[in-house]
Design goal:
This protein is of the alpha+beta class. It has two domains: 197 residues, Multidrug efflux transporter AcrB transmembrane domain (Multidrug efflux transporter AcrB transmembrane fold); 80 residues, VC0802-like (2-Layer Sandwich). It contains ten helices and six strands. The strands form two sheets. It has a four-stranded antiparallel beta sheet. Strands 1-6 form a two-stranded parallel sheet. Helix 1 crosses helix 6, helix 5 packs antiparallel against helix 6 and helix 7 packs parallel to helix 9. The N and C termini lie far apart (56 Å). The relative contact order is 0.14.
Length: 309
């Protein structure tokens, strides 16, 4: 495998854990504040109308979105089906009180402004605020169950002393991504949930690579403490991490900038996840594992002293 970083590199990552820990705690706290106060939930989670339209002629999706926004609607628009079908799905935000009114107004605007383009409103679905709230809850539950499953996997695959580090790192990644979404006004939709689940998978894979190397070191170099073993493991996997994360980041960033509006938010989350997930594997999962071991060792010593007494 091509090596960007030499195999005998001895960077002391553990020397920075105090500073990076404070930075991470600050970012997570700010992100949680944004999550609970500023999150911009999409139609899927807030309630509104979903309108499926079809045109006889080729229509620019941006023009449809612009037309509805100029009329005062908060809208998400995406292409569906084959390109030659000229078919779109429009999601328009609305409250429980004005759902029917908004739906009727959108239909009138579309028929008026695109009357020469052979518009056909094929289906109208209404998503009530209560259903949106339940869907939002289900989205967060999906992420919670993913975290629990990963914790069990890490515990069985390695040792349960590694599980807290992996879970804290994943919580760190997800919360910061959600915070960035909140403060940038990016809509939180079903696409975002899918992206976050993908980020969870990517981040834990990166963490497992480090943990696997740490376990090898524990078997080969039992005389070294866990702190030294983690530093050595990160250094040995650093070249692989840079290559893998760099390649993934290049692809996700390319899709974000050139993939179109329909997938822009998805790859925004993925791009953030690659950056933050790589950071957390080194500067969150590892120090939490060290901290957990420290508390475990203190508990074992206290128990041993109690038995002697």
């Amino acid at each position: 495998m091509m090596e960007i970083i030499k195999a005998n590199t001895k960077i002391k990552f553990s020397n920075h854990y105090m500073v990076t820990g404070l930075i991470s705690l600050t970012l997570v706290a700010i992100s949680l504040f944004g999550l609970f106060t500023k999150m911009n939930y999409g139609v899927d989670f807030r309630g509104g109308a979903e309108i499926q339209v079809k045109f006889e002629k080729a229509i620019d999706l941006a023009l449809v979105r612009k037309t509805l926004k100029e009329e005062g609607f908060k809208v998400q628009a995406q292409k569906i089906g084959d390109p030659q079908d000229h078919e779109f799905l429009l999601k328009v935000a609305a409250t429980e009180a004005n759902l029917n009114e908004v739906t009727d107004r959108v239909s009138r605007v579309l028929k008026k402004d695109f009357s020469n383009d052979g518009i056909d409103i094929r289906k109208v679905d209404i998503v009530g605020p209560k259903a949106g709230k339940e869907l939002r809850l289900s989205g967060f539950q999906a992420m919670l169950w993913a975290l629990i499953a990963i914790m069990v996997y890490i515990g069985l695959r390695f040792d349960f002393k590694y599980s807290p580090g992996a879970i804290v790192a994943l919580f760190h990644d997800v919360s910061i991504i959600l915070g960035i979404f909140a403060f940038t006004g990016t809509e939180f939709t079903l696409q975002t949930v899918a992206a976050l689940l993908a980020v969870i998978g990517y981040s834990v894979n990166d963490t497992v690579i480090v943990y696997d190397r740490v376990r090898e070191h524990e078997q080969k170099f039992a005389h070294l403490n866990l702190k030294e073993q983690i530093d050595n493991a990160i250094n040995e996997t650093l070249s692989r991490t840079i290559l893998t994360s760099g390649t993934t980041l290049f692809i996700s960033a390319t899709m974000y900038f050139f993939g179109g509006l329909a997938i822009k938010d998805f790859f925004f989350a993925i791009t953030l996840g690659v950056i933050i997930g790589t950071y957390s594997s080194i500067y969150v999962a590892a120090p939490v594992t060290l901290l957990f071991q420290r508390f475990t060792d203190k508990g074992d010593k206290a128990q041993a002293q109690g038995v002697k007494a």
